[in-house]
Amino acid sequence: MAKYELPKLPYAYDAFEPFIDARTMEIHHSKHHATYVAKLNEALLKEPSVAEKPLEELLSNLSLVPESIRKAIQNHGGGHFNHSMFWKIMGPVGSVSKEPSSSLGDAIKSTFGDFGKFKETFSNSAATLFGSGWTWLIKDQSGKLKVITTQNQDAPLSQGLKPIMGLDIWEHAYYLKYQNRRMEYIEAWWNVVNWAEAEKNFGA
């Protein structure tokens, strides 16, 4: 029996139209994410000694994962973890606020000066990331907010960092609608950020 399963989405594939198209969402979730789940389960079957450990624990301690499956856990385990968060930190058009409030909003203003500067920093980081990967708002070990990028499906947990929200910059996340216009995808994505969920991650 598979240990991990593809999570069901709490919205329809067309929930983000016109900013993220339904066909992209369907392929992204039902094909790409599903493959990460399948490959993760496949790797864990080879090493029963770590199969029962939580994925977060494995990603946070990759050096303790048997070398035979370490890269698979990093890539496919990271892909499953990253995407599972990605689906949650987006909300259907019309259901989300334009910017965070409460403690996360205060922390962003304290760290970056104001929300506009944070948004610019995050967007520029995503736009200039070379190749495929993610841009993240994370909380470091001291509790300070930072914007970072990770390559491929590397998860911030592997650097000892707590992810608050992340943006998928792999081409499969946007190419059907935006082709090579990555910045247009980034700008559109801000319209569907679920700040209430990001607030939960910040406070957890």
* Strand content bin: 5-15%
CATH topology of the largest domain: minor pseudopilin epsh fold
- What is the CATH architecture descriptor of the largest domain? 3-Layer(bab) Sandwich
Q: Ranges with pLDDT <50 over ≥5 residues?
A: none
Tally of domains: 2
Which sequence of SSEs, written as H and E, runs from N to C? Answer: HHHHHHEEEHHH
Overall mean pLDDT stands at 95
Number of helices in the DSSP assignment:
9
What's the Cα radius of gyration? 17 Å
Question: What is the CA-CA span between the terminal residues?
Answer: 31 Å
Count of beta strands: 3
- Give the strand order, joined by hyphens, for the main sheet: 2-1-3
Q: Structural class per helix/strand content?
A: mainly alpha
Helix content: 40-55%
CATH superfamily of the largest domain: Iron/manganese superoxide dismutase, C-terminal domain
CATH class of the largest domain: Alpha Beta
> Sheet with the most strands?
3 strands, antiparallel
The dominant shape is globular
